[in-house]
Amino acid sequence: VAKSNMGRIATRHLYLQCIRITRLGCSAAAFEQGECLGFYDADVLIVGGGPTGLAAAISLRQAGADVLLADALEPPIDKACGEGLMPDSRRELASLGIEPDEALGAPFIGIRFADLHSAVSAEFAQGTGLGLRRLTRHRLLLDRAAARGVRMQWGSAVEQLHHVRSHPAVQ
Fold first, then answer.
1. Alpha-carbon gap, residue 20 to 153, rounded angstroms
2. pLDDT tens across 89-132, in order?
3. 163-to-7, 89, 116 alpha-carbon distances in Å
4. Contact (Cβ atoms closer than 8 angstroms) between residue 81 and residue 134
5. Cβ neighbourhood burial of 128 (10 Å; 0-12, 13-18, 19+)
6. d(CA 52, CA 59)
7. Is-contact 27 44, C-beta < 8 A?
8. pLDDT, tens digit (0-9, with 9 covering 90-100), for 140-151
9. Distance of alpha carbon 133 from alpha carbon 77, whole angstroms
10. What tens digit of pLDDT does each residue of 148-161 get?
């Protein structure tokens, strides 16, 4: 998937038939009997359900692709980063149909970096940023992806690429 500077999405259809995804937390006996596997068809498989994977999935669905997203974790996925949205990030989210209410976070007009000996700061040329918990942003992306019809397989590990019936597939 590539996004040009014109904002158009270019996709390469993978024609994934017979995608095999292993469910995590499955006993060895259940795995050997095939009870931990799911088989899926999709135009595009996205591995990783963080903000970037969800944004890509939403964008591809808006372009008409049948999208399957898989992640080994279960939402909500939290980590200590991505708590601030710069103005350009807010514009990109809006293009996906996500415009967080400023009451969900804290608007800001610039950025500052500092250490014990120096500091540098600047205001944004246009727009405002929004301090927003990553969990809140993740929930907004999850809700939008579901509304757009992205199929999501949480707690699922994609382990390797292989070919089934001469079509690319994922195991």
1. 11
2. 999 999 999 999 999 999 999 999 999 999 999 999 999 999 99
3. 33, 37, 55
4. yes
5. middle
6. 11
7. no
8. 999 999 999 999
9. 11
10. 999 998 988 776 55
